[in-house]
Amino acid sequence: TRRIFPPFSLQSSIFFLFQVRLRPSEQEDFFMIRVSAGILQNEDGRILICQRPEGKKLAFHWEFPGGKQEKGEDDAQCLIRELHEELDLSLDPSKIEPVCTISRPQDNLTVVFLLCRPDHYQPAALEHNDLKWIGPHELADYSFCSSDQMMLDQTDHALLFDLYDRKQKNS
Q: Which of 47, 67, 75 is closest to 142 using CA atoms?
């Protein structure tokens, strides 16, 4: 009796079929988690940082507020939703400006940092331990999550803190 088997296992067949159906750019997008993070600037030019709560990954580290994009959302839509859910803040989409993007392929993560001003400056800590409005000279006093720290390391802090005002004056 002769047994006929496929030339490779079922698992590798499924993987092969899956790979063939996706173009290279779609493969990267499919596996990457995209996050929108807000650099919220108040009327004094200070920015908001949030302390991650106990029980979450990187608990007690500081971060810029935001979260994972849901299917069909763009960067700004995600940030608007996340800031409403986490801080009870609303944003005008026309006042959201991209600052930079940090890609961490080893973690399947892309973080898009967006500069904005909320409609009011009284955020509620609905999902964070603490919230602080800080100036550029205070950044070194806080331990940030790695993507946030990468953005801070790659960005001129003086520019970061007055970027919103500069863009508004030029428009």
A: 47
Q: Write the CA distances from 143 to 52, 62, 64, integer angstroms.
A: 11, 6, 12
Residue type, 18: F
Considering the entire predicted model, what is its pTM?
0.76
**The two three-digit tokens of residue 33, written as one number:** 């988690």
pLDDT, tens only, 37-76: 999 998 888 999 999 999 999 999 999 999 999 999 999 9
H or E stretch at 24: helix 24-31
- Tell me how far CA of residue 159 lies from CA of 2, 80, 115, 166, in angstroms: 73, 23, 11, 9
Tokens 């986490």, residue located: 86
Question: CA torsion, points 49, 33, 155, 143, in degrees to nearest 10?
Answer: 40
**Cα–Cα distances in angstroms (integers) from residue 76 to residues 38, 92, 110, in the given order:** 9, 10, 15
User: What sign for the dihedral angle of Cα 151, 101, 164, 74?
Assistant: negative
Q: What is the DSSP string of 57-109?
A: TTTT-EE-SEEEPPTT--HHHHHHHHHHHHH---EEEEEEEEEEEEEEGGGTE
